[in-house]
Every structure is written in C-alpha cells, then in structure tokens.
Design goal:
The protein is mainly alpha-helical. The protein has helices spanning 5-15, 20-27, 31-45, 50-59. The longest helix has 15 residues, at 31-45.
C-alpha cells in the first residue's frame, strides 16, 4: 500500500466524508498540507476522486472490520 500513518488518517477522514478544511482542523494542519496529502494518496492508491479513495479505504479494511462484503 505504501501509505504513511498520516496518509492513513487522512484516508479515513476522507472516507468519513470530511472536507479538506475539516481534515485540516482535526489534524491541526494547513489546508495546503492536507491537499498535498490528498494528492499523494490519489497517486498511491490509483484514485481520481474522493469516492475512489473511500472505496479503497473500505476495500483495504482501513475503516474497520465491518465491511459490506
């Protein structure tokens, strides 16, 4: 997978529906830093949208063991 611990935190927040601003506030980061993390995450997981990152999070078990499948 190759995600850093911080990127995993950001993935989980994206999957929970958080905006860039909300992620920045929760993790005490600038919105620019969050945007950089999101860009890196897209590249690493092969996603082109937040919904793609959300699917990745659930498919990879990052959202816990209560999966749909």
């Amino acid at each position: 997978m190759g995600l850093t611990a911080r990127e995993v935190e950001v993935v989980r927040l994206i999957a929970s529906g958080a905006t860039t601003r909300a992620i920045a506030e929760k993790l005490v980061l600038s919105q620019k830093t969050v945007a950089r993390h999101v860009s890196n995450i897209f590249a690493k997981v092969g996603a082109t949208s937040r919904s793609g990152v959300t699917a990745f999070a659930y498919d990879s078990g990052l959202m816990g063991t209560n999966t749909h499948g």
